[in-house]
Amino acid sequence: MELISTHPIKESDLGFNRTLFGGKLLYWLDGDAVAYAMQYCDTPRMVTVTIDKCIFRKAGKPGHLIKIYAQVEKIGRTSLTMNVEARRHNVYDGNQQVILSTNIKFVKVDEDGNPIPIDEKVRNKFSIELNNRKMKWNNLSGVSDSQIKERIKSLEEEISNSPDADPRDAFEIRHWKEEIEFLKTQLNQNKDE
Ligand SMILES: CC(C)(COP(=O)(O)OP(=O)(O)OC[C@H]1O[C@@H](n2cnc3c(N)ncnc32)[C@H](O)[C@@H]1OP(=O)(O)O)[C@@H](O)C(=O)NCCC(=O)NCCS
After folding, report:
1. Are 29 and 98 in contact, with CB atoms under 8 Å apart?
2. Does any ligand 1 atom lie closer than 6 A to the CB of residue 50?
3. In a mutational test of the pocket of ligand 1, which residue from 29, 49, 74 has the highest number of ligand atoms less than 8 Å from its CB?
4. I need a surface site. Which of 20, 94, 148, 174 has the fewest CB within 10 A?
């Protein structure tokens, strides 16, 4: 995922409990993600059509930085869907914990607000990015089975140590699981060869 913005938590961002107000976090998420979508799709006219379920897992507190991460997951005919994650960042030790992660879907519109297709150029860029993500995993030439097993073990540890190990909406965890699945397939293929 790519870091797209950082927000210090100010007094005016706090709710009644003196922790980060949820509405403020959603404002940042939607605003930062739409800016990213505009840049990604080469147009200032992107509108939010859906925000998936949002579970606030941790509270943001004064002194934390809120870091927003995003990754484009899907491009439809007129829409772009992004995984967006907000993490609270402790400046003293660099520790980060996920506050919430969700999917936001944006639609490209014309000047009258009607949906229009995403450019072919953008589609190509996305398909190259997807290939690069896959290649990151596929580039296993010269990597021994024991190294692959080691990687699987460390990913499994990351998952079980994650304080936010809820498979429903922790995208990082989902990506780790996908990588484990891929590595296990690779090990089985090596066995057959
Ligand atoms: C977004 C908007 C332009 C879509 O208009 P629409 O008439 O539903 O358009 P379409 O049916 O052609 O759908 C356009 C895209 O939106 C997606 N979409 C529309 N409604 C959706 C829904 N309820 N859930 C998921 N996706 C939806 C469609 O899948 C389609 O994507 P695709 O082309 O990639 O397949 C319209 O709903 C709108 O203007 N909404 C307000 C946007 C806004 O102001 N957002 C800020 C929040 S206040």
Report:
1. no
2. yes
3. 49
4. 94
Is this model's pTM higher than 0.85 or not? no
Alpha carbon distance 73, 37 (integer Å)? 12
Say which CATH superfamily domain 1-117 falls into.
Hotdog Thioesterase (3.10.129.10)
Whether 96 lines ligand 1, by a CB cut-off of 6 Å, is no
3-state secondary structure labels for all residues of 156-176: HHHHHHCCCCCCCCCHHHHHH
| Domain ranges across the chain | 1-117, 119-193
| SS3 state of residue 178 | helix
CA-closest candidate to residue 164, choices 61, 88, 70, 64 = 88
Q: Tens digit of pLDDT for each residue in 109-134?
A: 999 999 999 999 999 999 988 877 77
Q: Is 22 in the pocket of ligand 1 (CB under 6 A)?
A: no
